Amino acid sequence: MLLELHVKNFALIDRVDLEFAEGLNILTGETGAGKSIIIDSVNFLLGDKQSKDIIRTGEESAYVEGVFEVRNEEFNRLLLENGIETDEVVVITREINQSGRSISRINGRTVTVGLLKQAGKYLIDIHGQHEHQSLLDEDSHMDILDSFCGESFQALKKEYRQKYADLKEIKRELNKLNADEQYKLRRMDLLSFQIQEISEANLKIGEDEELAKRKDILANSEKIISNLAAAYESLYEGEEKGCAYDLMGVGISHLESIEKYDENLSKMKTSLEDLYYQLKDIIDEIREYRDSIDFDPEELNDIEARLDLINRLKRKYGSTIEEILQYYDKIKEELSKIERSEEIIEDMNKKKDEYLKNLREIAAQMTEIRKKTALRLKEAIEKELKYLGMERAIFKVEVKEREELGENGNDNVYFTMTANPGEPLRPLSKVASGGEMSRIMLAIKSVIADVDRIPTLIFDEIDTGISGRTAQSVAEKMVLIAKNHQILCVTHLPQIASMADVHFKIQKFINNDKTVTTVQKLEYIDQVDELARMLGGAIVTELTRNHSKEMLELARDLKYKIRN
Known about the structure:
Blueprint: E1 2-10, E2 13-19, E3 24-28, H1 35-45, E4 61-69, H2 73-81, E5 89-97, E6 102-106, E7 109-111, H3 113-123, E8 124-127, H4 138-147, H5 151-177, H6 181-201, H7 207-219, H8 221-237, H9 244-258, H10 263-292, H11 297-317, H12 321-339, H13 341-387, E9 394-406, E10 409-418, E11 426-427, H14 428-431, H15 434-448, E12 456-460, H16 468-481, E13 486-490, H17 494-497, E14 502-511, E15 514-521, H18 524-536, H19 542-563
Parallel strand pairs: 3-13, 3-14, 8-12, 12-13
Antiparallel strand pairs: 1-2, 1-4, 4-5, 5-6, 6-7, 9-10, 10-11, 14-15
Helix pairs in contact: 5-13, 6-12, 7-11, 8-10, 9-10, 11-12, 13-15, 15-16, 18-19
């Protein structure tokens, strides 16, 4: 649902901040006031192509922001796949500057216009001028029919799509295995060489670290031996100044001679004796370490050569020995696959044929359900069209077989119609005006209202060429659909406007020699005046006000009956 819309420097709009509600949101205003600018701003927000001409005169950029409440798993999946954090509230922004460059963001993350359009399909369905019509996208025809086919069909379609995705993966693997024979031979030579090179190295995890430590010791052996000897001498063999070991022994003797006078002195002596014995252990370790070092230039050369080999392999196959060994396992498996490719290809071809057979069986079931449902959908839509003033319209849902299986089965679905008997059925774009197209979509939405997952519908021009009872019928259908959907509708008919759950008035005026479009949310008394204007023109009288109040009372009662 569209919660908020913020528009700045867009066409005639200086700044508009709108809060929409659930149900039926009506936008009205005098001809030329710029009612469709609001719809245009939403189109722009969701990826519609616009030039810099839409920037308000004298400004550097135009900006539109929409705040949406979204509860759609597929929408959330789309965002997550593109690295965008999701929540129930999603903020979409788009800005265009004087260079014609636009920047789009979803939840603060910059996105492409393509992703913006994909996301928009889950949020809003716009019906008005042809270029904004989802009905002109034949992919939507199948979606509409399928949504009318029931839950068992949806489960069947889900199963088909999963198997179709699996089949695509099988075909991709087969294409790799069926690669050019010369390429396979070259690849086998390369893999064999790499496997041999890594295998002969006989790598052990952690050996590079151990070798580096040993190399460090050998390379600095002279310094290590010299300092160990000096340490040993100062601790144990010093004669001129005395060594630490002997001096500590003297200290123990002095304490021993006086310990009888105070038990604290005895404790000191005991502690010093402990240190004395610990020092002797350390001295022995120093001597053993010193004696163990035997500088061998050949060993150092061998270690350096081994480390050079390991580092060369790291540069080629991985940054650690563990990564090199993982790569080794991977290329061994790849070589094995290539060597067994004929056998694997045969097995995968069998698997592919099994999948194709199973998919054709599921697709045949889907086709049968679609064809039966197409008749029901046709009848239901024609019934709604008659109710909406298109009494002679003939609508057809055609289910035609594809040349080969596709992502949605073996069918293409097309909507065709004629508004006049005797005329041939044609695609909707060839036979329907903007207003008629909106009524067709209103009819369709009435039929599929309970299963339609797009939360917000926008109708522009839906009242073109209608009046009287037809206008009332359109209004009632919109109230019905608004029970489960949010609707934004631009209208000039009081019959439709009176049904508003929220009513916005769009006005145009001159401010400092600049034309400005504003949008005002109407309270009851203002709504009465606006309906009176729509009923009677520029001059509002008490008669038209009373008529307006009566319309609002009747509309309130009718809405209650329709929705309860």
